[in-house]
Amino acid sequence: MARKEYSQLEVLKFIDASNERCKTIGLNPNIVPDPILIEPTQLKLIQRDNKEVLDVVEFFIPEFLGMVKGTPLLIVLTDSQGVIMYIEGDNTIKNVIEHLGFKTGIQFIEQYSGTNCISLALDNNSAIEIVGTQHYHDFLSQSACYSVPFKDHRTNKTIGTVSIMTDISFKDPLLLSLLSVVGTSIEREIQLREQNKDLNALNQVVTESSHTAMVLTDQFGRITEFNPYAEKLTGLKRKDVLMDSSQDLEVVGEWVQKIIHSKDSFTDIEVIFKKANSAKETICLFDGRPIYSVNKYLIGTVLSFRDITERYENQLLMQQHAHHDELTELPNRRYFHNYVNEILDSHISNDTSLAIFLLDLDRFKLINDTLGHAKGDTLLIEIARRLNMYIRDKGKLFRMGGDEFTIVITNFHTIENLKQIADDIIEVVRKPFVIQTLEFHISTSIGISIYPNDGSDISTLFSHADNAMYRAKDRGKNGYCFYNSDMSEESLQKLTLESELETAIQNNDLVLHYQPQIDLSTNQVIGMEALLRWNHPQLGLIPPDNFIPLAEEMGLMINLGEWVLINACRQMKSWHDQGMTSLKLSINLSPQEFLKQKLVDKVKQVLLDTGLTPQCLELEITESMTMDVIRSTSVLEELHDIGIQIAIDDFGTGYSSLNYLKNFHIHRLKIDRSFVRDMLNGPKDAKIVGAIVSIAHALNLKVIAEGVETKDQLEFLRNLQCDEIQGFYFSKPLSANDIEKKYEFNSTRGVIQL
Description:
It holds the Pfam family EAL. With 754 residues, the chain is α+β, with helices and mostly antiparallel strands. Helix 27 (711-719) links the parallel strand 27 (702-706) and strand 28.
């Protein structure tokens, strides 16, 4: 009965069904259940019956705990009835759970213990992961638990589980993968020990066991017996080696001579066999001893070799899982810490140079949210491959998780060397990617810290590289930045803002400013773009560039977006009631809002509540949001059907495709301020602006330019027949009261004429 592989969705169904059963039988989730405690005498019998399993676990677990050192967890072993036979691991966790009655000798049964991974693993013969509130009982809501069943190869029945329990902050699917390797290793070791148990030298000579080789010699080292697996192991035939000197046999001859000369016995020595003309190695445990006559004379030697290649490979696999990223196969965060610490320890004596590059992909979350994690994973694999190809002997590449990579550079000579590497990395990432016929362009921001100038330990160096990376993002992304001491204070300010932002939403410390949009053919104000500001009690008005990225990281953009939509529509309706019915309202949508389920229903409800006419609302989206064509088409069609206008914001800076302009319901293209700013200084930007205007008009779309600050820019755009503009030349963003004062709203006129 092999261990079954269920999908994550199927496992979640098992958990939900268990929670329902617990609810039905009346278990109280708020009360810690009384454990079922096995009598000490019965527990001793259970442990005696499972002695082989316990011996194997005590062999594997210390090595496993060493691999995950730094992660506080418990390893728990149960029998087939859910009785805990063995607990090892973090003492703090062990002390906490012992107060709850969790110790050796208790039995896990769903109807008493609630939803738990041990019972589900036994019932479903499957690896199970239960995290946080998936548990039925509240006292387990801050824990992550993983269980894997293992079986007896002779009966093919499940004989117990091996489990991990840790704090929820250390949850990681990798733990379940590692645990599966441990479970397989336990099964293999039990099988190996059973095959070799109670066999004496004579039995081993005649055995046909596929995992035990036996060689006997006389007192002179001549081979007198050579069993079938010895033939398989060496590639030699018994008939060809009998009575030949063992000295001619690799590995075998060496140990025969040691035993003959020293008269010593040897046990569990690891040796390697390699056949001629084969690259495959066989790892064996060697036992050898001298053989004496009844008169105590040496008459020969006996050697046995047990094949442990599979166990050895499982141990290597455990190490691979513990120290490498599963997706990209790059060294992971644990490997990074060990690697850098070894270098730093050696610096005391040899004073080599070291730099840490922290890479974070720009706007990668948008790709995941828009196209799904499968394409995002494909992109990460390709980026890892490219970076590895470039780095090679320059340094060592690691994946820290998500879209973060680190590179450790040693033995560089100058800062210029590091700058050149950073420039090269940016170019490597910038080259287009093609995934399922879609072309992607992505960039990276890099923070760099240098030992010992920026820190003498790994935590400080990494933190400072992180600060520098965020400075690179603040400078516009797609670049690199070296750490300096000013950044630590900025990082502290950022953490302070993060903690205050959620409170600001609750306390209504947010305000809206409005920037007029001008029709160049009539010189009339035809719309207002609503722009969010944070009115901080101590810092005053904070512009969106300083807190919108934080809101995105914290998952608050949907809340902010709803606040803007409601309050901006309410203000525009107020202006309409004052007679300014010609004004339209423009609002930016974030990717999270655009991808939110029931976005259209939310917009309809706000329009209904505020009384604003749908045709007077324009929603601005970015080009990148349209990468998921099926999803985008559906949303844009629904918005179009209720009369909402759609503008493409920052046109020309993202995922540009004429196809979506042709097929999507779009009313305006908005030229990004970066093109407007440079169009009078360089022919390329001027041509880009002209091309955007031409494309828009060819497709019967309006075009609006933002960031217009000078009369020369205004006249240049007018000559290109740009339809609309906005920018500081006419007005900076103003509060609603200041807008009304500036334009002296007059209900009899109904329009704002400049």
